[in-house]
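Progress report, Aim 2. The chain analyzed during this reporting quarter is listed below.
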Amino acid sequence: MSTLAVTLDPEVARLAPTLSALRRAIHQYPEPGFAQFQTVALVAERLRELGLEVRTEVAKTGVVGLLRGGRPGRTLLLRADMDCLSVEEATGAPYALQRPGYMHACGHDGHVAMLLGVAEVLTARRGDFDEAALPAGVQVLVRATEAYLGRESAG
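Predicted C-alpha cells for the chain:
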C-alpha cells in the first residue's frame, strides 16, 4: 500500500458515516437531468462550507467548486453526475425514495457523495498542493446529466 493511501485511510474512515448519510439523503429525493434544484442546493452548500469557490447554474443545473492550490499550473477536474432514472424503487430500504417515479438506480447518488468526500479530504490537505504535481488546484464538477439526448435524462 502506498504511503499516501495509508495516510488518507483515517481521514476517509472518519468521513464514511457522513458520506453514507449524504448518499441516502440524495437517494431519497432523486431529480431528473436539468431539474436537480434540491440536489444542487445541497452540493453547493457543502462545497461552500468547505471553502471552495462555487458556481451554480453551469449548463443549467450543474455545480462547480474550485479549490485553489498555492502555485500557478494545471488544474485537475473531478466530476460526478447527479441525474436519476425514470424507474420505481422497490427495495424497501429505510432510505427508499420519497419522490415516486424516479430512482438513483445508476449510482449517481453515491458518486456525488464520494466526490464531496474527495473535496473534503483535498480541502483538509490544501497545504499539500504546494508540493504536489497539480499545484494550481482542483475543480469539482457535479454535472446535471450523464448524456443529454434530447429527452428527460439518459441516466
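The beta strands are 53-58, 62-68, 75-81, 137-143. Helices lie at 3-28, 37-49, 108-124. These observations will guide the mutagenesis work planned for the next reporting period.
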